[in-house]
Every structure is written in structure tokens, then in C-alpha cells.
Design brief:
The complex is a heterodimer of chains A (113) and B (113).
Chain A (H helix, E strand, L loop, with lengths): L3 E4 L2 E4 L5 E7 L5 E7 L5 E9 L2 E4 L6 E3 L9 E3 L8 E8 L8 E2 L3 E5 L1
Parallel strand pairs in A: 2-11
Antiparallel strand pairs in A: 1-3, 3-8, 4-5, 4-9, 5-6, 7-8, 9-10, 9-11
Chain B lengths: L3 E4 L2 E5 L4 E7 L6 E7 L6 E7 L4 E4 L2 E6 L4 E6 L8 E5 L16 E6 L1
Parallel strand pairs in B: 2-10
Antiparallel strand pairs in B: 1-3, 3-8, 4-5, 4-9, 6-7, 7-8, 9-10
Classes of the chains: A mainly beta (113), B mainly beta (113).
Chain lengths: 113, 113
């Protein structure tokens, strides 16, 4: 039971490049979230999903896209990377439907140069 | 949506002293009140939570108190130790809702040995 896994752990991108951050969970949770955390700052919600086929924008969605074709996977796509997207990205899941815990993945540290 | 304020943003205490962090929220429908701890370079992890039908919950050296009338809840850490040094986040929510989750901006606690 791996919980929430994220790949890659680290990545350096050049301005204008694209990439996909992977998030996979084996907890059979309905709800999944993508957050970014800038150095010394709090967590900002990028996108979230309450089930396969359903996604919605969070506080800071510009420059990102998501899809949720299965319960397990919730990839985050960065198009045309910019230095402002340098951050640590966390994926999180929860069962949903009640007062339940969010479980976070280990994070992906992204640098855009 | 939920407006969340967390105070203080930084807190330094001597080892053995107590620390209190307060989280104020706006949505009177909120009924679940977790606190997360994030150690340097790690993912946030739940340390304690409380539901709206309970006024206080304790787990060894940590406790959470809830004042639903005033719409705030607090994290209390007693007999602080160096390993308590971390960033702490609150995340009040309506447990059954599908709305985006909102975190407080975090409190950086430093325990000085």
C-alpha cells in the first residue's frame, strides 16, 4: 500500500518547456488535489477533482491543466513553463463525503530557468 | 468560500514552554477542524483534528480547542521539544462539501533548546 506517490521528485525546466507531474493513489479515494507551495509560503490550490471525469479550478489554475480519467491518477500538466511556476507541488487525496483526512504525496520540486 | 486567518505567522518558544496557534474561519457551516504539521522539506501531515460536536481534544502533548460561536479553533502544544519545530497549518471545512479546501497561511514554530 504505497498511499500517494508523485513523480518526478525533482525537475529543472527551461522557460517555454512543458511537462506533466504524475500523481497516483492506491487508497481508492474519490477526492484529489494539486497544491503549490512557494518557498516559505503556504499551500495554494491549483485544481481539484471529486471523482473520475470531474475537475475544477482552485485558487491559482492559470498555466496548468489537469485530467482525471481514472480514480487512481490525477496528472498535472504545465504548458509553456515560466519562472513564476518554480515551486514545490503536492498532490493530496481524501476519501470524501465526510470529515476525513487529507493525505499528501511527497512532492515534486520544480525549477524553471 | 471559506476565509481563514491563522496567527501568529511565526512563534519562537523556549524548550519546555507552551505554544498556542489560533485559526479563525468565516463559514459557520464548517464542521471539521484539522491541524497539519510540515517539517522542513517534508509533506504536511495531520497531527490532530476535531469535529464540531466536541469542544476539546487532546493527544499527549497536543490539544485542539474549538469555539464555534466565535468561529475559531486553536492548537496547543505543551512541554515543547526541538522536534516540534515546523510549520503548522489549519484547514477548517464543511466535511461533506465539495468546495475547494482552504488552508491557513501557516505558523512557523521554532523551539529553542
Amino acid at each position: 500500500n504505497a498511499g500517494v506517490t508523485q513523480t518526478p521528485k525533482f525537475r529543472i525546466l527551461k522557460i517555454g518547456q512543458s511537462m506533466t507531474l504524475q500523481c497516483t493513489q492506491d487508497m481508492n479515494h474519490n477526492y484529489m488535489y494539486w497544491y503549490r507551495q512557494d518557498p516559505g509560503m503556504g499551500l495554494k490550490l491549483i485544481y481539484y477533482s471529486v471523482g473520475a471525469g470531474i475537475t475544477d479550478k482552485g485558487e491559482v489554475p492559470n498555466g496548468y491543466n489537469v485530467s482525471r480519467s481514472t480514480t487512481e491518477d490525477f496528472p498535472l500538466r504545465l504548458e509553456l513553463a515560466a519562472p513564476s511556476q518554480t515551486s514545490v507541488y503536492f498532490c493530496a487525496t481524501r476519501r470524501g463525503g465526510g470529515a476525513d483526512t487529507q493525505y499528501f504525496g511527497p512532492g515534486t520540486r520544480l525549477t524553471v530557468l | 468560500g471559506e476565509n481563514v486567518e491563522q496567527h501568529p505567522s511565526t512563534l519562537s518558544v523556549q524548550e519546555g514552554d507552551s505554544a498556542v496557534i489560533k485559526c479563525t474561519y468565516s463559514d459557520s457551516a464548517s464542521n471539521y477542524f484539522p491541524w497539519y504539521k510540515q517539517e522542513l522539506g517534508k509533506r504536511p501531515q495531520l497531527i490532530i483534528d476535531i469535529r464540531s460536536n466536541v469542544g476539546e481534544k487532546k493527544d499527549q502533548r497536543i490539544a485542539v480547542t474549538l469555539n464555534k460561536t466565535a468561529k475559531h479553533f486553536s492548537l496547543h502544544i505543551t512541554e515543547t521539544q526541538p522536534e516540534d519545530s515546523a510549520v503548522y497549518f489549519c484547514e477548517p471545512r464543511w466535511g461533506s462539501g465539495n468546495t475547494p479546501l482552504v488552508f491557513g497561511k501557516g505558523t512557523r514554530l521554532s523551539v529553542i533548546a
